[in-house]
Amino acid sequence: MQSATNRVAFVAHCLLNQNSKVRGGARCPGVYSPLVEVLREQGWQIQQMPCPELAFTGLHRFWAVREQLETTAYRQHCRRLAGAVAGAIEVHVRAGDDVVLVGLEGSPSMGVHVTSSDPGRGGRPEWPEGADELSPGSGIFIEELAAELAGRGVPMPRATGITHQLPDHDPAAERGAIVELTGGPRGG
Amino acid sequence: MEDDERGFRIALIADELVNPRDGGVDGLAVLERAGWGAVQLPSADYPDAVAGPLMEQVAEQAEEFARHGYVLVIVGRRDGLAEALAGYGIAALPAVEPESAEQLERFLATAGTAAHPSQA
């Protein structure tokens, strides 16, 4: 934190650390540059959220859809993490800072507008090639974060998601969405 | 890990090096250029009641990386980090408090030569 009226972006863990991704999911060695570049250009501070899947199902986890993570234990885990993040968001909101959230579209946990869902998925990890699990909606952690903030009387920040794991990923459109979310350069 | 570009190298990095003040070292930019991932430490400006649970998450996630052989280092200083890591069985990690981007680059170049995990 630096001063009042800061602009603060809470970002999904993997956007600063691709090592947290499920195997086969890392798009770069570490920091996802397209997001950081836009945030830096526009004068946003960065705050990294924890990765709910990393600490729960570990680095050797399979790709998963919401239904596989939709358990009481995982909800409780996400609630614990959401409480920590909400506490930090609350500090900034109470200080009058502008706060946004950047999740990860297609994620069963961190999706903002697109999550993944397939009620039939389970058992031996094989499914028809090209099976489409993407569906509208938020991930489980994002839902829990919204609930935690509501309980504190703190509005959910404006939010979008990085789209690099979606099949129709368009880098220019992704950048445009971030720029739209963050509202252009300070004073612009 | 076909088509996976992870670098297997992660820095636990102080908030002021992710969000540098005027003239401060931009540690995140250095990590980005060097191909390291970042785990951001809670801002020292947060009250303890806010920073504590965030630090707990840092330590919990660091333990998962350490157990799988990823290279971990500490960049910058954060009170309470050593205790949080020790709570998860992580002993002292290589650390630097960089006074310049060049110093951090040299440190990462040395630290990053540690054994590369296979199928970590």
Report mean pLDDT of chain A, rounded to a whole number. Answer: 91
Task: Give the overall shape of chain B, derived from the CA principal axes.
Answer: globular
Strand content of chain B: 5-15%
C-alpha Rg of chain B, in Å?
14 Å
Strand % of chain A is 5-15%
Cα-atom radius of gyration of chain A: 16 Å
Helix content of chain B: 40-55%
Uncertain runs of chain A are none
Largest interface: A-B, 40 and 43 residues
**Structural class of the secondary elements of chain B?**
alpha/beta
Distance between the termini of chain A: 22 Å
Helical fraction of chain A? 25-40%
* Total count of strands of chain B: 4
Silhouette of chain A: globular
Major beta sheet, strand line-up of chain B:
2-1-3-4
In terms of per-residue confidence, which ranges of chain B show pLDDT below 50 for 5 or more consecutive residues?
none
Overall description:
The complex is a heterodimer of chains A (188) and B (120). Chain A is α/β, with parallel strands linked by helices and 188 residues long. Chain A contains six helices and six strands; from the N terminus they run E-H-E-H-H-H-E-E-E-H-E-H. Chain A has helices spanning 33-41, 52-57, 66-69, 72-94, 140-152, 171-182; strands at 7-11, 45-48, 98-104, 114-116, 134-136, 158-162. Chain A has a four-stranded parallel β-sheet with strand order 2-1-3-6, with helices on both faces. In chain A, strands 4-5 form a two-stranded antiparallel sheet. In chain A, helix 1 (33-41) links the parallel strand 1 and strand 2 (45-48). In chain A, helix 1 runs parallel beside helix 6. The longest helix of chain A has 23 residues, at 72-94. Chain A is globular, with a radius of gyration of 16 Å. The mean pLDDT of chain A is 91. With 120 residues, chain B is of the alpha/beta class. Chain B contains five helices and four strands. In chain B, strands 2-1-3-4 form a four-stranded parallel β-sheet, with helices on both faces. In chain B, helix 2 crosses helix 5. The N and C termini of chain B lie close together (9 Å). The mean pLDDT of chain B is 93. The A-B interface holds A 1-2, 13, 16-21, 23-31, 33, 36, 45-48, 50-51, 54-55, 58-60, 80-81, 83-85, 87-88, 90-91 and B 1-10, 15, 18-19, 21, 28, 31-32, 34-40, 42-43, 45-47, 49-50, 53-54, 56-58, 60-61, 64-65, 68, 70, 120.
